[in-house]
Amino acid sequence: MEALTNNLFNIQLLLESGGLVLWAILIASIVMWTMIIERYFFVYFIHPTHIKRALATWQERADRQSWYAQKIRQGMIAESSASLKQYLMSIRTLIAALPMLGLLGTVDGMIQTFDVLTVFGTGNARGMAGGISVALITTMGGLLAALSGMYFSTQLEQRVLRAEDTLADVLRRD
Predict the structure, then answer these.
(1) How many angstroms separate the CA atoms of 26 and 32, rounded?
(2) Which residues of the chain register pLDDT less than 70?
(3) How far is the C-alpha of 38 from the C-alpha of 43, rounded, in Å?
(4) What's CA 124's distance to the chain center, in Å?
(5) How crowded is residue 174: how many other Cβ atoms within 10 Å of its Cβ?
(6) How confident is the model at residue 86, as a pLDDT?
(7) What integer pLDDT is reported at residue 12 of this predicted model?
(8) Could you please report the per-residue DSSP string of 96-132?
(9) Which residues contact 122 (CB under 8 A, 6 or more apart)?
(10) Is 63 helix (H, G, I), strand (E, B) or coil?
(11) Which residue of 2, 44, 72, 136 shows the fewest CB atoms closer than 10 Å?
(12) Nearest 10 degrees: CA dihedral of 23, 39, 83, 53?
């Protein structure tokens, strides 16, 4: 219990030393990870039932060879593809935005450092270190969040492509 309290205190200190930009990175990361987890849940648990339903609907059709039937098949595949790709662009956008938020924190930290230099000169090392600390912590936070999201996002996009191909193959069989 003491270790948990100590870790939470360290996280609080880190967030406070990173300033508002680190809080923005945290919020963006939580949103990104919520969407990633939701997409994984959809792909692995909900989408298989959609495939079964689409297959049952397709097999109920007497006509599967005509131009009209093929357009219905294409529509079913397109509808499934759209539901699979939901939020993927938003996830990618957040992955691209997180390093930019880290860069914003870097600029903010350097401005703090230059403010200290302007007022106190080079004699206040502690004041300069505070600004440099903000710069480094926010840069690290933005890059770490983006890199972790990038791996899972890429893996998720590959899984979505395989799921699209699977549905197209399943509906192709007669």
Answers:
(1) 10
(2) 9, 173-174
(3) 9
(4) 40
(5) 7
(6) 94
(7) 75
(8) HHHHHHHHHHHHHHHHHHHHHHHHHGGG-HHHHHHHH
(9) 128
(10) coil
(11) 2
(12) -150
Q: What are 4-36's pLDDT values in tens digits?
A: 787 776 777 777 777 889 999 999 999 999 999
Structure tokens at 33: 């990870």
Q: What is the residue whose two structure tokens read 């600029």? A: 107
* Reported pTM: 0.85
Residues in the chain: 174
User: Hey, what amino acid is at 103?
Assistant: L
Q: Token pair of 73, please?
A: 């098949």
Return the residue matching tokens 């690290």.
140
One-letter amino acid for residue 138 of the chain? T
Q: How far apart are the first and last CA of the chain?
A: 60
Structure tokens at 101: 């938020």
